[in-house]
Amino acid sequence: MTDPIRPAATVLLLRDQPAFEVLMVKRHHQIDFAAGALVFPGGKTHAGDHDPAWADHALGWESVGEDGAPLRIAAIREAYEEAGVLLARDADGRIYAGEAAIDVRAAVAEDRTAFLDVVRDLGLKLDLAALTIFARWITPPLTAKRFDTWFYVAHAPLAQLAVCDGREAVDAEWIAPGQALDLAASGQRKVIFPTRMNLQLLAESPHAAAAIETARARPLVTVEPWVDGASLRIQPEAGYGVVAEPLSAL
Question: Is residue 51 part of a domain?
Answer without folding.
Answer: yes
